[in-house]
Amino acid sequence: MSKHKSTKIVSAVIVSSVLLSGCGLLGGEKKEQIDPPKTVTYTEDNGTATVVETAASEKNGEEVAEKGVMTELYLVDKNGYVVPQSIDLPKTESVAKQAVEYLVQNGPVTEMLPNGFAAVIPADTAVSVDIKEKVATVNFSKEFKNYKPEDEMKIVQSITWTLTQFDSIDKVKLKMNGHELTEMPVGGMALSKSGLTRDSGINMDTSEVVDITNTRALTVYYLGGEEGSYYYVPVTKRISNEESDNISAVVEELAKGPAYSSNLLSEFVSDVALLDKPVVEDGKVTLNFNESIFNKAEDKIVSKHILNSLVLSLTEQKGIESVAVTVNGKAELVNDKGEKLSEPVTRPENVNTGSF
């Protein structure tokens, strides 16, 4: 599983610069810096008012405001899926530790939880995080073991996927009271000695697998929630090792849709198909679809949910940074806002912000 976005720790003023994103529905490849807004203050000298314009980023050489840190917290929705929710957390020098602390039930995340979502780590659990050579070792207090056995995998996935969003972390190891855990303390779920990674998957769906030994993991994104408040849910499926490439397999799984009993949705129809083999060049994959990709063929409209699911799923693959879509070899497409899709679509920096 590659790092599909950069999450950086920065000390920044709230409007030190404004970036305009272009090229893509979910987020841009090109960024153009524009002049920062001005802060207008009024001073009086001998009864005369004077207007002083100061860049909002500084005043007398000092920061006037500090920006929060948008962080993906992997929370559990009402259907039991582990789902990223991007939340603006207070600025801190230890974003990894803070991210885990915001996974604790009845902790600081409580007032920020989206409707229907819950944190997964047992209440009152104290946390410390040590990062060395891209391995984050999380030490929990004894309260960590106060969970139900059936929640064990969700807890592991939530911690692992939350921490591995950061460029400085590839693997996660768990401790309790300073002792390394080789298995979870309640249900005994085995933990890899080399460290937990995203390769183990999330929200596993093995409903169609007969022999798991001849398969590999593939993560795709379906729709969860309800109309007006949809969000994207990563689901790891097992595909046959005979599948030639993961990119084509992603399209096939999205077209196939989620399991009937999953409470998840997809706007793909079953006869969506690629007309040519995917072309990958310099991080961009170009896909040539049949007309079934359109939700309004006469207007050549591709829905935002189809595009979002495609981009989120494909950028989980190593080396894929953007997605270009054509139909019958032509790129004359628009999204459901009427905007032309003339540029490759890139993955958003933050998933499920409530804005797309």
What does it look like?
By secondary structure, the protein is mainly β. The protein folds into two domains: 69-200, no CATH class; 212-346, no CATH class. The chain contains four helices and 18 strands. It has a four-stranded mixed beta sheet with strand order 7-8-9-10. A four-stranded mixed beta sheet has the order 13-14-16-18, with helices on one face. Strand 11 and strand 12 form a beta hairpin. Helix 3 (246-256) packs antiparallel against helix 4. The longest helix has 12 residues, at 152-163. Mean pLDDT is 82; it is low at 5-65.
Question: How are the SSEs placed, and which strands pair?
Answer:
Blueprint: E1 18-21, E2 31-34, E3 38-45, E4 48-55, E5 69-76, E6 82-89, H1 95-101, E7 127-132, E8 135-140, H2 152-163, E9 171-176, E10 179-180, E11 215-226, E12 229-240, H3 246-256, E13 279-281, E14 284-289, E15 301-302, H4 304-314, E16 322-327, E17 334-335, E18 345-346
Parallel strand pairs: 8-9, 14-16, 15-17
Antiparallel strand pairs: 1-2, 3-4, 5-6, 7-8, 9-10, 11-12, 13-14, 16-18
Helix pairs in contact: 3-4
Key terms:
GerMN domain-containing protein; mainly beta; 356 residues; 4-stranded mixed sheet; globular; 4 helices; 12% helix; GerMN; 2 domains
